[in-house]
Amino acid sequence: MTTPLDGKIALVTGSTSGIGLEIARQLAKAGCRLMLNGIDTPSMVEDAISDLRATGADEVFFSDADLSAPRQAARLIADTLDSFGAIDILVNNAGVQHVAPIETFTDENWDRIVEINLSAPFRLIRQALPAMRANAWGRIINIASVHGLVASRHKSAYVATKHGLVGLTKTVALETAAEPITCNALCPGFVRTALMESQIATQARTGSMSTEEAAESILREKQPSRSFIAASDIGAMVTFLCSEASSQITGSVFTIDGGWTAQ
Ligand code: NAD
After folding, report:
1. Burial class (CB in 10 A: 0-12, 13-18, 19+), 25
2. Which of 23, 39, 67, 237 gets mutated to test ligand 1 (max ligand atoms within 8 A of its CB)?
3. What is residue 75's three-state secondary structure?
4. How far is CA 1 from CA 10, 30, 74, 140, 250, in A?
5. Which of 168, 170, 186 is nearest to 234 (CA)?
6. Given strand 181-188, what is the order of strands in its sheet?
7. Do 205 and 94 share a domain, yes or no?
8. Is the same domain home to 163 and 82?
9. In a 10 Å sphere around its CB, with 0-12 CB exposed, 13-18 middle and 19+ buried, how is residue 217 labelled?
10. What are 97-117's pLDDT values in tens digits?
11. Would you state the pLDDT for residue 45?
12. Is the whole-model pTM more than 0.90?
């Protein structure tokens, strides 16, 4: 039985946990061969690989390229090309957060977030495009955030980089518009992953409430649906954007945010 993306080679950054792992799972179900990436413990990586093999993905490789270092984006592309000889789908998913008022936001945190959330996607796109052009087919999907469209206090680097990623998406879409290559961005609201759990824990501590009360309070403030978004919904959207039905969708920015930005 053939699947919609049978044999396509997908590189998903930050795919050893959270949203990235779910994107990888959905792409595997659609028939992709996968290059995983992340900086988690060896056991988390092993779990992610066996999870994907169980989904039916025969070929799953892993690169531990740390995207906080500029030269590691080139290594990640080289690792993918060494393993598969091509790159059809690039999902720029790896992203980090730091919450602090701008007066106390350190240069180190700013630089790390800019490098991982924005500069790494720029470098990965630049270096993946020749491989996509060689096969005359490509899909680039950047996982931005609602914070690519609106701001929240104390998230200066995250908001700035996610707005930048939306701008990068549109520029790449224009530069590839006449080719069978598309570039789009997804802007999720709150998804309950490790990245979110640390914000819930901080809210619980500072507001003297339980973890679940803190989660509810965070949702009440921003996300009208009052439910977390399932990572699998983001994976499903990525899979759709890789399909032939989406060949004319490029430069688009999709919110999946329970009504957050409708307010
Ligand atoms: P997560 O913390 O659960 O997972 C992050 C992944 O990125 C992990 O696989 C980790 O190993 C990898 N990673 C972290 N630093 C890295 C580095 N230096 N080099 C390579 N890989 C690295 O995060 P998540 O919540 O799944 O977020 C994934 C993406 O979705 C991020 O870009 C995030 O900004 C975005 N996003 C998340 C939410 C949310 O509510 N969780 C909402 C909107 C957007």
Report:
1. buried
2. 39
3. helix
4. 20, 11, 35, 26, 29
5. 186
6. 60-63, 33-37, 9-12, 89-92, 138-143, 181-188, 253-256
7. no
8. yes
9. middle
10. 999 999 999 999 999 999 999
11. 92
12. yes
In a domain, 3, yes or no: no
CA distance to 15, 34, 175, 182, per residue, from 125 (Å): 17, 17, 12, 12
CATH code of the domain in which 125 resides = 3.40.50.720
* One domain, residues 20 and 143: yes
With residue 167 as reference, give the H or E element that holds it.
helix 156-176
Q: In the predicted model, is pLDDT for residue 1 greater than 70? A: no
Q: Whose CA is nearest to atom 3 of ligand 1?
A: 18
Residue with tokens 């998406």: 169
- Give yes or no: 240 in active site: no
Q: Is 59 in the pocket of ligand 1 (CB under 6 A)?
A: no
First to last CA, the chain: 45
